[in-house]
Amino acid sequence: MTEEAVPAPSRWRPVWQEFCESKTAVLALWICSLMLLAAVFGPWIAPQNPYDLTQISFFDSRLPPFSTSPDGPYYLLGTDNQGRDMYSAMLYGLRTSLLVGVSSGVLAIILGVSLGLVAAYAGGGVDALIMRIVDFMLGFPTILVALMMLAILGQGVEKVILALVVVQWAYFARAVRATALSERNKEYIEAARSLGLSHTRIVFGHLAPNCMPPVIVIGTMQVASAISAEATLSFLGLGLPITEPSLGLLISNGFNVMLAGLYWISVFPGLLLLTLIFAINIVGDRLREVLNPRNAK
Amino acid sequence: MTVFLIRRLLQTLAVLFAVSLVVFVGLYAVGNPADILLPDDATEVERQAAIRSLGLDQPLIVQYGLFLKNALSGDLGRSFVYNEPSIKLILARFPATLELALSALFIAMVLGFPLGLYAGLHPGTRMERAIMTGSILGFSLPNFWQGLMLILIFSIGLGWLPSSGRGQTGSLFGIETSFATWDGIRHLILPATNLALFKLALVIRLTRAQVRETMPLDFVKFGRARGLTERRIVGVHVAKTIAAPIVTVIGMELGSVIAFAVVTESIFAWPGMGKLIIDSINRLDRPVVAAYLLVITFLFILINLVVDLLYTALDPRVRLGGKS
Questions:
Q1: How far apart (Å, rounded) are the C-alpha atoms in residues B266 and B163?
Q2: pLDDT tens, A138-155?
Q3: H helices of B155-285, where?
Q4: Measured between alpha carbons, how far is residue A246 from residues A68, A155, A239, B317 in Å?
């Protein structure tokens, strides 16, 4: 979700310049980009494929960080219970966490923005119905609804994504509707109407692009919260299956041996997860300041 | 007002009915609990007997009808694992969860209010930026990992506090609580802190926003004109003005804290509702899962109703019933 800030069309250029005034935010954006690259190219960077049983050696299990195995491989961040290189496992975990976070965010944006726009543009009964559902959804904590859904659906990547979309779309719908209500009465919409354009074209071609600033801010924050929620659910044993370990699952595996003093199995994936979420939130917070019309200079 | 309440009541019933249907059908689509409950060497005859005694041989619609009929008389089924009424199991664990949630909110207030006050009074200072960045860190910190780190540092590393269970509870004014014994309080500190940090950022940001809204108001200027010390203005008059809305908003967070207690309870083996639901999901103890989901839905509808009513009481501009 970090690419939005890149100045492609000229109207974003001032936004980008103002964004860069905060050094912390630029650093956070760098960290996000680095993580994204690490996730995409993870399988090529990682010293081993941690889920290929032929590549891991059981004799190397539970090695502390910075150890070299008698057989040769060097384990920067140690190994887990099964002799898996933690650094490789974290790269793969990061990949899964980002995949779930970003794809649920994107799907929630598509669903939420569409419904929010339709509600604002159509008004009347359609609006009342959609907003009723939105209010209802927002009345329940994210983690609870996701937990309920996964208790019923069971584990799986697509099920976690589905649960996260269901808990997130309402935030986008509410924000977009609020913006669209004020945009709806502006001249350019009237102009589009008088040209005889279809409703679909007016809503998605003309109204939608002008409602994007709040979506970008909320989208950034929601990706962070989705990554965190997925990790939490996986930690509780309700999210991803053992075969598709995200950072949350790695932390959970480490928890079981932490009491025996093997701290690194839990601590390092946690630090990575924290850094990722923290960086995304810093970027989001900065975007909020920059894109908020009230703060405009 | 009456119209609003009646409408809300009907909505509540409709939602509960829908949730019960979804929960029931959804839960019965996964696995057969008889396979989990019976020992591996059970014979086919024993298996059939177990299925019959659990009522699992009836068609789904009959099972659901029975479930609904019993639910209306307050019976949400017996736990497959504990062989006790599931509603009783859940309610028996509610006090532990409530105790944890209230302690967490208390800690969040005690830590967050002064920090937010400071940040609001000193905008633009280095300390204010540190507090605000810290609050982003606060809500970025995955709650469960933060709990693990608390255990790693304070239980394993320093050995100061116990990391699991509720400890010894005692009776205080006739209520069974951890506050009554020192052992109970020691067990409460880590889980309550874990849950509190989750809301700390909210308290800080809310307090800061309230302070910044209040400081330019006339009564603060009058206070200054009267020659009151800045300390007295902030400590007494501003604090009094902003306390009510902050306490209200934090009170409304009680529901979300109870929901998030699921995570904390699992980490610290706190014997509350949350740990029960996670254990029950993993053991496919359907009656307990179904009952929990219905109870929690009901609880939240209740909380949201109270929140709506509170909003009207606090802000007369909000009108109930009318448009919605």
A1: 11
A2: 877 888 888 888 887 778
A3: 182-214, 218-225, 230-232, 239-252, 254-268, 273-282
A4: 26, 13, 9, 47
Q: A30-34, B45-49, B81-85: lowest mean pLDDT where? A: B45-49
Q: Which residue of A has its CA nearest to B302?
A: A139
Report how far residue A114's alpha carbon sits from residue A124's, in angstroms, rounded to the nearest whole number.
17
The answer to whether B217 faces chain A, any CB pair under 8 Å, is no
Predicted local distance difference test score (pLDDT) of residue B220: 81
Residues of chain B above pLDDT 70, percent: 84
Would you tell me how many other CB atoms lie within 10 Å of the CB of residue B187?
A: 24
Domains of chain B by residue range: 2-72, 94-314
CB contact under 8 A, A151 and B281: yes
Residues 6+ apart with CB under 8 A from A186: none
Q: Considering the entire predicted model, what is its pTM?
A: 0.80
The conformation of residue B170, written as its DSSP 8-state character, comes to E
What residue has token string 């709040």? A214
Q: Are A211 and A271 in contact (CB under 8 A)?
A: no
Query: Do A156 and A239 touch, CB atoms closer than 8 A?
Result: no
Tell me the CATH class for A22-45+84-295: mainly alpha
User: What topology does CATH give the domain B94-314?
Assistant: MetI-like fold (1.10.3720)
| Nearest CA distance, A127 vs chain B (angstrom) | 11
Burial pattern B79-115, b for ≥16 Cβ within 10 A else e, equals: bbbeeebbbebbeebebbbbbbbebbbebbbebbbeb
Residue closest to B291 by CA, chosen among B63, B60, B76, B69: B76
Task: Give pLDDT tens digits for A250-274.
Answer: 888 877 777 776 777 788 888 888 8
The reply to whether residue A270 touches residue B281, judged by beta carbons under 8 angstroms, is no
Structure confidence by residue, pLDDT tens digits, A16-27: 877 777 788 888
Instruction: Quick: pLDDT tens for B126-173.
Output: 888 888 888 888 878 888 888 888 888 887 777 777 777 776 666 666
B41 Cβ contact list (under 8 Å, min separation 6): none
Q: Provide ipTM, 2 decimals.
A: 0.73
